## 1
Amino acid sequence: MSLLLALTMLTGLIPSVYAAGPEPDVLTGTVEYYSTAKEERVTDEYTYSDAWFFEDPNERNDALAWCPCS
């Protein structure tokens, strides 16, 4: 019984990114914020995925590094 419990606990350590399959969940939506550069409220779209943090850290990810700086 304790061996079965130990195996069950070990499978819980596997990140869901690997267990989910080849296409991880991607969240998209809109966000509203106050832009100090434009001095007005701005509405913009966003995209987010946990998978970005499991990619090669030596390669630039433009989706993750996006900045509304203009």
Note: The two ends are 60 Å apart (CA to CA).
## 2
Amino acid sequence: MKYYFLLAALFFLLAGCNTRKITPASYAGSATTAGYNADSLPAPFATGSAKNFSEVVGWKNGEMPIAPPSFLVNQFANGLQHPRWIYVADNGDIFVAESNTILKGILKLGASISRKIKTQHIGESINRITMYRDADKNGVAEKMYVFAEGLNQPFGMLIIDNHFYVGNTDALIKYDYTTGDTSLRQMTAKKIVDIPAGEYNRHWTRNIITNKAKDKIYIGVGSGTNVAEKGLENEIRRADILEVNLDGSGERIYAAGLRNPVGMDWAPGTQTLWTAVNERDELGDELVPDYFTSVQPGGFYGWPFFYFGQHTDPRTAGLQSPPPIEKVIVPDVSLGSHTASLGLLFYRQQSFPAKYHNGAFITQHGSWNRSIISGYKVIFIPFANGKPTGDPEDFLTGFVEDLTASKVHGRPVGIAVLADGSMLVSDDVSNTIWRISVKK
């Protein structure tokens, strides 16, 4: 009953939210097609629900992702164990969270699926943060330090003043920190927020960012299940972006109904938060589009009852307390169905060509629930005055070796920018950090 009271209170807050006209890109997995009307989405179950897990074949010597002709790609670091997220400190130190999905009963999924999953090393998590330094600034890390161990599926990282924050799957932890530290001061650990990570923890990543004033922390908490099939009581404080003070007090739901909001960033020149959201599965090849959207404080984006605006998910008919459908906010940009769009950053540096300035880069970890795989690349969305000005376009590709056989070299996840304007992208199944820079 407590949950339903909180849900009703949330929907009351949503009463002032405005809906918007839909202007997304294609839902078909392409990053180059024009916008469409929301009614062009296919009906639920127009196709079957595929279980098409990619097989990771890795990169041979000399192979690497492909960037546009004016860019160079090189290997910044390798030999990690499932590098997920990247955080760059003001002094240039580079932190990489090494963590992974932990599954039970992998062998029960069937021989062929099990074999493909094993190529991605799912089920094992090193739970570590590694720190790198590129002392001579040649684009290759020379120094490596084990910064922290013994964490619980760490993901988001953040430095504010003299503290280092880590988003474990079950808690936000704060540590004492001094610029230049090469290891985390474990004895100073203080849990400041419990994060739900119970029996159902399908979306375990916890990204964290701060605001311009550095007096708030925002935590992306994905849903515990696909569409609340284990009950809404298991989804309290999930499918939300939470806002807390630096000491963990003052928690509020900044926005709700976001199935798995992972990447978060503020649009340059604005105070508007944007997020990349990994949407629901098992409605067919072309449902539901992942999306990239501005985040309205107090806004509701539909999960689990509705998808991509005012489309009712038929599987939620038995759930209690659905909100008024007219209060659901339509996302800004479609990113293709089942692309697993995760990482996000706005490019604030100047070394990339002008078209990329202030634009958004999004990593797509890649599908498992589509008969022909989608995602497995980094895309770019141009921006001006805090708004998208064009459709998504491919930026870093080459991760797919064989589309029809669902064979891939790697899967991009984390993304960060260095002080020289070059970009880092983590490839979690090839255990590599790639660097993308402009040709000189």
Note: Helices lie at 2-13, 111-119.
## 3
Amino acid sequence: MPIITLIGAGSTVFAKNLLGDLLGFPELASSTIRLMDIDAERLHTSEIVARKVAHALNATPTIEVTTDRRTALQDANYVICMIQVAGYKPGTVVDFEIPKKYGLRQTIADTLGIGGIMRGLRTIPVLIDICRDMEAVCPNALFLNYVNPMCMNQWALSRATPIKTVGLCHSVPHTAGELAHDIGVPVGDINYVVAGINHMAFYLKFEQRYTGENLIPRIAQVIAEDRVPESNRVRYEMFKRLGYFVTESSEHFSEYVPWFIKRDMPEMIEQYNIPLDEYIRRCENQIADWNALRHKLEDDAEQIDVQRSVEYGSLIIHSMETGIPRTIYGNMPNTNIITNLPDGCCVEVPCLVDHNGVQPTHIGAIPPHLAALMQTNINVQALTVEAALTGKREHIYHAAMLDPHTAAELNLDQIWSLVDDLIDAHSSWLPQYH
């Protein structure tokens, strides 16, 4: 039975979902599950939850718990990572509050934009350290990464370590479900092909599985009939302009481009229903609810409800262990997979998984306007990765200068000053730039 290590297992709710997925497979039900986190209190809660999940599924895993990363990784077959470097405080709060002083507002700030750049700079060195440990104690393990900014992280790992890795995100199946609801077709009846970069991939094919009917006109019909959901106005606007539907949510996408968040056009925020500071509010609500949730999770009288999620992690492990072939969407280095995106950048494409591991599907050239839009984000990713791997501060300025949202709102002096302020505020996490 495989040894499956969860790094950042103090993310209790996410760990619960992944464990339910893993232990729900009979072939994985007796696996060794190692839970690791630097927060011993949250780790204790996750251990209780893990044992409850196993009991609910009649699974018999060996559950081990440690705050020592090297111990957790020893001889592991699969390593699932779900950390947040610097946490909500100070990490996320700083990434929002300092840009606000310059009039630069964000919604999520974890993928691109100035917040995504800073998160990438904090996170990449830690992920590389984890992989260095893996090189020493489990060199053949697969590293399954759920940590944002996905493209920056995976691109850096592909350059810095020989460890096999795949980046995982649930935006593809989640969006397929939303579109299925909007057009009134069961999601199981839809066949689709998606390609691009994480959080900016597009449905190149969206058709009825059994008849082959092209369902993209039905998406257009949602606009024509004035049925666009309030939470999805940005994405439907982009669909109208591009002819293809993007995988990531409207609140995410609005900060990857220069067109929606404008401080001198506040009416656009209302027009497109853009939830500024959404991630801050979400985190505050989760923190406020954590103690009550923790007591409930730890209560012996409370049963755990286990439902299979749409996450790909368990499917990958199950297919690699059993040889049962599956298609998942993974973030992998672009080795001539999408031919009109740069070699080596991180692309999100369908991947075959079986005993041979995660094997990306050749896509070829995607529509040129989609590739051009992605390139604006890839420029920022490339320079952030360069800064993270070389320690050269100048590349951080250059990444921020080329960021579409930042460049649309601030002049060059403001951008450089903002970068200086953020590096100073994150000095304990970014000592190499001082």
Note: The chain is about 50% helix and 15% strand.
